[in-house]
Design brief:
Chain lengths: 476, 194, 141
């Protein structure tokens, strides 16, 4: 391993316990990453429960009704991705800024606050009826609960804001006092945007149309806006590290890609404003702009492959490179292609609120956000554990987990797409449409297949965790 | 440099900065989709669109077209002068371009003011929705183009461009020509084609 | 000379483009808010509807159903359920849950009072009269 000694050998000031870390305070990222993976497991377990409820309707009823399982499934997803983003922030901002984190202690306090608040919220979902949870958490004072993805009690939302602010304060102080790079600026812009747009979750007007309109300011401007900045920065950071390509090249492409993201994505919000009471012109604006949303994802894919092809070093962490390339491909397929499939108003008229939406949601979230967080973890975790890369055996296991999860997700998406097409055909087209439930009965074959693919995904996830415990020789 | 390369038959490159060309292509794609959707909807409601188009002033639009074509001409002249090292003259051409753009904004603004006074909004009907969306969106692009040219003008006054280094002027020119091009299509499609 | 491609231009386009399109988005939002009174059925947004919306939220109905196509896809669309089923059926149905039929999807019983059921139905009626550009395609939602 000749070329593997370059990146990480400058020791931190003072007596560094871990020679792989440039700055000791980067170590706070480790618990964040571990929490992220733990919550990911929880998310998938509840996904499997829901998948079964789709075909065995009374499974776990009344203990875990579907709405509770779904709330846990989606909220765990958001929370584990936030843990991943925060861990990534704590890891990459000190390294980019070339200085220790402003306050590692604050980062650890925020970690425990966030973890405990998150766990209590999930326990609340599972332990008491939702209406009771709303009452005991004082939802009456500022009603924000009961809207998709924003089901958290108002006090949990306030807690998220507090944690986000300490996190942003900590990182911003670090950046301000240190070197300012494109990667750190884009990361910070994305994270600040994340916090700012979350504030719209506190706005819950009685008017349903206004409620829905600004609900999307959280949801869309997160996942098709500022989160893509975070994703781009994380991917760029890992690519700089593992390919050794000139930072200047990576950074200018990063700017072009995220420029395309916001140029298409901001007005692209309009593709959610077709049928919720908003004026008809959104069908034109939404269709035209969101039709171009695949472009930045395509560029990101090309970017990742180009950088790896032009690599100036052979980084020993092959698994991280695989995840980085996978992120490019899967985000393009999931967010780009599957998003485009139903983004034009005349198509969306038929597919809106069907399994087509679900299929897109699954692959897009996995391909863009789950995978970029795993890319970061895959790159940083060995370093946090004191080695440049995991042993070959461990990496082989990790790559198996990559393929199992990714292929399983492709099949989940395909089966849900098939279900969605049939649903549209039976329920919304023709002179004798079936009712919703009669249609659902017809789709159970595909729901079974989706559940089977989900089990494979879960196996892949377990294998991913196993890869952390596979030893083997330090290198090859 | 650009022309020298071409003359020498070496590498063909785009004028200005490649990053701007990504932006230009995205903008053209958006406008292209808008125009295509306009065409489809117009074909379905020919009477409505004919009535709406009859209510537009071709004279004002013709004036705007001439202003933008003149603006493209002055911008091209500016690029040539900077390339030839005549920075002072080039700077004056930039100012002339800004004046052409300003004339467009005034004339088109007066037209919009008339619509507004007549109570026309994006929600009036399909024709006015498309007309206001397309023309308004383009109007904002003229504003953006002028902001870019104003920035270049400021840099030029500070003497930051010369024959060897005037990519900023070329980059701004590329964007400005795109804005002009979109207007020509818009003019033909919305004002002329009946 | 190779193609010129600088980070500073890319950066300027990113910031300029983001600001430009965000301002456009804000302008369209302003226009939308102006246009909504004619579309969003706010004339019928009574106290009862407000209470119904809160019941809708605090019982997490969106966790299974869709409303104007948004939500979970496990149970029927309710944006047009008022037209599809009518007020009496809706109330009777909610009271009769869960059906307990083996293997069928189950809806919990939320123990709503009669006046709460009226509130919820009022909310669903209000929702069903929002101008949604003719969505859903048919009564089945």
């Amino acid at each position: 391993m000749t070329s593997s000694t370059t990146a990480t050998l400058r020791p931190a000031a003072g007596q560094a316990a871990n020679v792989q870390l440039k700055y000791r305070s980067q170590a706070v990222a480790k618990p964040y990453f571990m929490a992220a993976i733990g919550l990911f497991v929880g998310q998938i377990i509840f996904g499997l429960v829901m998948g079964l409820q789709y075909v065995i309707g009374d499974f776990l009823f009344p203990e875990i009704p579907f709405n509770v399982a779904r709330m846990v499934h989606t909220n765990l997803l958001i929370v584990w991705l936030l843990f991943g983003f925060m861990g990534a922030g704590y890891y990459l901002i000190p390294e980019e800024s070339e200085r220790e984190l402003h306050s590692p202690k604050l980062a650890m306090i925020a970690f425990w606050v966030f973890l405990v608040a998150g766990a209590l919220t999930i326990v609340g979902y599972l332990a008491v009826p939702y209406a009771t949870l709303a009452r005991i958490t004082g939802n009456d004072f500022l009603p924000t609960m009961g809207r998709e993805f924003l089901e958290q009690p108002t006090i949990t939302k306030a807690g998220i804001v507090v944690v986000a602010l300490t996190f942003l304060y900590n990182l911003s102080m670090t950046v301000l006092k240190g070197r300012k790079t494109t990667i750190s600026m884009v990361m910070m812009l994305g994270l600040w945007g994340l916090a700012i747009f979350f504030l719209f979750s506190f706005y819950n007007p009685h008017n349903l149309v206004l409620d829905k309109y600004f609900w999307w300011w959280v949801v869309h401007l997160w996942v098709e806006g500022v989160w893509e900045l975070i994703m781009g920065a994380m991917l760029a950071f890992v690519l700089v590290k593992v390919t050794g390509v000139d930072r200047e090249v990576v950074e200018k492409w990063l700017y072009v890609i995220i420029a395309m993201t916001l140029i298409t994505g901001i007005i692209g919000t309009g593709h959610h404003y077709f049928w919720i009471g908003t004026p008809g012109y959104w069908q034109v604006f939404g269709s035209a702009f969101s039709a171009l949303e695949p472009i930045p994802f395509f560029m990101m894919t090309m970017f990742a492959f180009n950088m790896v092809n032009k690599r100036r070093r052979e980084h020993p962490n092959k698994a991280a490179v695989l995840w980085a390339l996978g992120t490019g491909v899967m985000s393009f397929l999931g967010a780009g292609v599957w998003g485009f499939l139903h983004t034009l108003a005349p198509v969306n008229y038929l597919t809106h609120g069907t399994q087509i939406t679900a299929s897109h949601g699954h692959m897009a979230f996995y391909g863009a956000y789950a995978m970029v967080v795993i890319t970061m973890i895959s790159y940083a975790m060995p370093l946090l554990r004191g080695r440049e890369a995991n042993s070959n055996r461990s990496q082989v296991v990790e790559m198996w987990s990559f393929w199992l999860m990714t292929i399983a997700m492709v099949f989940i998406t395909l089966f849900l797409t098939a279900a969605g097409i049939l649903q549209v055909w039976m329920q919304r087209m023709g002179d004798h449409p079936l009712s919703f439930m009669a249609t659902q009965d017809q789709l159970s074959f595909f729901y079974w297949l989706r559940e089977a693919a989900g089990v494979v995904f879960f196996a892949g996830l377990l294998l991913y965790i196993v890869s952390f415990f596979v030893r083997g020789d330090a290198r090859d | 440099m650009q022309t020298k390369d071409l003359a020498a038959g070496t590498v063909r490159t785009v004028p200005g900065d490649l990053a701007m060309w990504f932006f230009i292509l995205a903008e053209l794609a958006v406008f292209g989709l808008f125009f295509a959707i306009y065409g489809v909807v117009r074909a379905r409601q020919p009477a409505l669109f004919a009535a709406g188009q009859a209510g537009l002033s071709r004279l004002s639009a013709l004036g705007n077209t001439l202003l933008l074509i003149a603006g493209s001409g002055t911008m091209a002249a500016a690029v040539q002068d900077f390339a030839a090292g005549r920075s002072r003259r080039g700077t004056r051409w930039l100012l002339a371009t800004l004046l052409c753009g300003g004339g467009f904004l005034l004339l088109k603004g007066a037209e919009f003011g008339g619509h507004l006074a007549a109570g026309i909004t994006l929600s009036s009907n399909d024709f006015w929705m498309f007309y206001l969306a397309l023309a308004g969106f383009h109007y904002l692009h003229v504003v953006l183009g002028m902001v870019i040219i104003a920035a270049v003008y400021r840099a030029a006054r500070q003497g930051r461009y010369d024959a060897a280094n005037h990519a900023g002027v070329e980059t701004a020119a590329a964007y400005w020509h795109m804005v002009d091009l979109v207007w020509l299509v818009l003019f033909a499609l919305v004002y002329v084609a009946r | 000379m190779s193609t010129r491609f600088t980070k500073s231009t890319a950066r300027n386009i990113f910031y300029g483009g983001a600001v430009f399109f965000f301002l456009l988005f804000v302008a369209l939002t302003f226009d939308t808010v102006q246009a909504l009174p004619k579309r969003d059925n706010r004339a019928n947004l009574t106290e009862q509807v407000v209470r119904g919306k809160k019941l809708w939220e605090t019982n997490n109905c969106i966790g299974c159903h869709t409303l104007l196509g948004e939500g979970a896809y496990f149970a029927p669309e309710l944006g047009n359920v008022y037209q599809r089923r009518g007020p009496d059926f809706i109330k009777a149905w909610i009271k009769a849950q869960p059906t307990g039929v083996p293997g069928r999807r189950q809806m919990p019983n939320f123990h709503l009072t009669d006046s709460q059921l009226d509130d919820l139905v009022a909310f669903l009626k209000y929702s069903s009269e929002i101008n949604t550009n003719h969505w859903p395609p048919n009564i089945e939602g």
